[in-house]
Specification:
This protein has eight helices and 14 strands. With about 300 residues, it is α/β, with parallel strands linked by helices. It has a single domain, classed as UDP-N-acetylmuramoyl-L-alanine:D-glutamate ligase (3-Layer(aba) Sandwich). The strands form two sheets. Strands 5-4-1-8-9-10-11-12-13-14 form a ten-stranded mixed sheet, with helices on both faces. Helix 1 packs across helix 6, helix 6 runs antiparallel to helix 7 and helix 7 crosses helix 8. It starts with 9 loop residues before the first strand and ends with a strand.
Length: about 300
């Protein structure tokens, strides 16, 4: 892992930021016509890149967040929700002027269905290299406007971190991201053989590949072998939205702080736990001290 930095690191995060409606249900809808009553609902910040940005900022990392925003009411709400002294928002104009929006159905058991209302694209096609100047890492999330940065970051020698979510190892969309990643996070939701997936990634050059397993914790692989990461304890699961983003941000901040792999993975697990105990996206209330205190009790080990 990297040596401890003497200055505050800056990270480029590129990808979605959205304004979402979250609907709480006892269970996800069954596939037939029927009526359900929500146990609660609210509007708030969404998007995987926004979740990483707010958690990284809380952990003391300076973030440049490049995303696509419209010129509508939702864009103003997103910008307001991202207002933080450690976050600089670079909003590329949406082609149709509309900001990304979802309706997320959130079940009490942690299940989620995301319905896309708006998925904007951008006409921006200018040079992007300046965004990487001085960056300690480039977090390039699944989005078309991230693709040009994959090669640019590698050419600039900036470590590439990618979260490919529920990649199944077969579909084409995530391949370029997985292939470019120095550090990779994937969920086990659609993987038939998570360990084989991680082995294939490390064989192709990924330095650290991590598979999150929800309440079962995570499994990771680096050049020296396997890691098992238990889930940090949670008194009450309030909202799972952005828990994976918080895990990712905790891992990245730990690496930038010079922690060893075990301690960085423990911080990641702790940030995931802090996220599910918070109704907001990610873990915007986390600090490195709180996360490391929670992570100190975890038995992260080689297996």
């Amino acid at each position: 892992m990297a040596a401890r930095l003497t200055r505050v690191p800056r990270v480029l995060v590129n990808g979605p930021a959205a304004w979402n409606t979250l609907v709480r249900l006892p269970a996800l809808p069954e596939p037939h016509s029927h009526t359900l009553f929500a146990s609660g609902h609210h509007d708030g910040l969404g998007g995987t890149s926004a979740g990483k940005a707010v958690t990284l900022a809380a952990l003391g990392v300076d973030v440049t967040l490049r995303t696509v925003l419209g010129d509508d009411r939702e864009a103003a709400l997103v910008r307001r929700a991202l207002a933080h002294p450690r976050i600089t928002v670079v909003g590329e104009p949406a082609r149709d002027g509309r900001t990304e929006r979802h309706v997320n159905l959130m079940a009490d058991d942690g299940g989620r269905v995301s319905l896309y209302l708006e998925l904007p694209s951008t006409t921006a096609d200018g040079p992007l290299g300046h965004l990487l100047d001085g960056a300690a890492a480039a977090v390039l999330d699944l989005a078309e406007h991230s693709r040009p940065l994959l090669a640019a970051a590698r050419s600039a020698g900036v470590p590439v971190w990618c979260d490919v979510h529920d990649d199944d190892g077969e579909s084409d969309y995530a391949r370029a991201f997985a292939d470019a990643a120095d550090v990779l996070l994937v969920s086990d939701v659609r993987l038939a053989d998570p360990r084989a997936y991680l082995q294939a990634r490390v064989a192709r050059g990924t330095t650290l590949a991590v598979c999150s397993r929800g309440a079962a914790g995570a499994t990771a692989l680096d050049a020296d072998g396997w890691w098992e990461v238990p889930a940090a304890p949670v008194d009450e699961v309030v909202d799972t939205n952005g828990a994976g983003d918080a895990f990712f941000a905790g891992l990245l901040s730990g690496v930038l702080d010079g922690l060893g792999t075990a301690a960085a993975l423990a911080r990641a697990s702790a940030c995931g736990a802090l996220a599910v105990a918070d109704p907001r996206l990610g873990a915007p209330g986390a600090t490195s001290a709180v996360a490391d205190g929670l992570g100190a009790g975890l038995d992260v080990r080689r297996v």
